[in-house]
Specification:
The protein is an alpha/beta fold. 47% of the residues lie in helices and 21% in strands.
Length: 159
Amino acid sequence: METTRQLIEQLRQHQFHISTAESCTGGMIASMLVGVSGASEVFEEGYVTYSNEVKIKNLGVSAETIRKYTVVSGPVAEEMAKGAADRSGAALALSTTGYAGPDDGEDGTPAGTVYIGVYCCGAVKSVHCHFKGDRNEVRRQAAQKALRLALEALEERNG
């Protein structure tokens, strides 16, 4: 919760907004954000895009990117984050795509594999993570990691 408070304070200081595009976390990042007082000043919208079709339609993820890299990949996480930022006008956007479990992905990717996309002021990157635990624990850890990465991205940008 402290990371989320710090993130919201940093966003408020810089008059930035944040948006989210979540698949495997299913809105958990958005929930963590709105759980902190003052979130309404910096968080205006979030997307839960569980299917490939909705990622393509609502976020502008390329079907070719999904075919080439699979939906659980860094390039898809990056396109999701950029799509959320483009559609919302937010300076910062987070995305998650992964296999929360208990089953592995159809391609053999292990449960607990998550890619987090971070868009900050025109730059986008993805981070490959692997979390242990049951489905909800993986989702919780991924959401917390995404918020930490967002705070780090802002701190790097602002020196």
